[in-house]
Amino acid sequence: MERYFKIEYYDLVLLFAGIIALFAAIVPVIFRNKYFSAPIFYLIIGIAGYFIILHYQIDPLKHLEVLKRLTEFVVLVALANAGLRINEPFKWKTWRHASRLLIITMPITIIAATFLGWWVMGFAPATAMLYGALISPTDPVLAGELQTSAPGEKDNSVSKLGLTAEAGINDGLAFPFTYFAIHASLKGLNYKEWIGDWFLHDFLIKIILGIGIGLLTGWLLFKIVFSTGSKDDTLGRISRGILSLALILLPYAIAEIVGGYGFLAVFFAASVFSRYEKHKKHMNSLHDFNEELESFVVAILFIIIGIFIGMHYRMIIEPKIIAIALLMVLVVRPVVGYLSLIKTNLNAFQKFVLSFYGIRGIGSLYYLAYGLTAIGFEKPKTLVATTTATIFYSVLIHGITARWVQKNIKRYDQIE
């Protein structure tokens, strides 16, 4: 009998991956019209798995590079999806509400989160700045139920379009503020010595490079693909999956090599593709492949987060951490977002949706890992716990209430 039931680590990894793949295939479908989102289910599975089976200690500070690369890939796939969904990316009406969230809500949210990190959690100023930067982007991954229409279809919800457009941009715009925190940690709080260099290079030039490279590579990829397959039957034979990877990897890699922000490059490259409505069928297949890939990696990531929460649940329910997490989710983003939309043509329901559903998620984990691998910040364990708690309560609150919004959008959300 010693020949049978031999347990090897590699085989267990494959078993684990297979179970997650099954979850990723069926869970989003099961919970599609429920008051319960797929990420909540994955978190519960992870927490239960830790207490029932695993009891395996995960120290995220020892696996930051793995966390950074995994979350980076998920965000890239989600940004490409967001770009493909926006049908008129180069018209002002697409951005007139999202621009307020980006220009007003995001910076004030960063300042408020920085203050709360310093005042409530006792973070050093540079660490508080990092918390402010990493918690500022809304998440294109977890907002799936509140994203705009599929590629080629009319953007029939003002609030959904605004959330998708905001999420597509601000995952890249969090980078300059992450660098601001890194500079503060490296060079001190005498900002006059380095703020000019930060503003020129980390803010202006890198943003311009990211957007420019994204637009150029998106246009070139479109011309190459649709010139090669000028006949529809030829286009049908081009692999949607491989093309999706090209649309993600090429803009990102080129932007990063040149020195721009790759997140912005991917979103704008995908936006170039989305503007060609006559190729709706092919845009849909690109989007569908990305969505399936995204579902699989999201399942892995949130089960792991659930395990971490189970392992450190005492830290997650610490009063200070709960306070700052709920303040960010229930007060700061909703209030600042709502105020930024004053004097627009939106009704109260639309303002509520755009301001309240600033979901915190995988982008925050990426910036957390990026900041902590770039340089040492004080109280890294507390920062990890605070970030995880903020994401946990955001996923819980926004996931449970998103279905209510879905049911009321057709009634209260004006169709343009």
UniProtKB/TrEMBL annotation:
Keyword Transmembrane assigned: yes
Domain Cation/H+ exchanger transmembrane as annotated: residue spans: 22-405
InterPro entries: Cation/H_exchanger_TM
Keywords, sorted A to Z: Antiport, Ion transport, Membrane, Transmembrane, Transmembrane helix, Transport
Places the protein is found: Cell membrane
Lipid bilayer topology: Multi-pass membrane protein
Record field: transmembrane: 12-31, 40-58, 99-121, 203-226, 260-276, 296-315, 321-342, 354-377, 383-405
Domain of life: Bacteria
Protein name, per record: Cation:proton antiporter
Organism: Flavobacterium rhizosphaerae
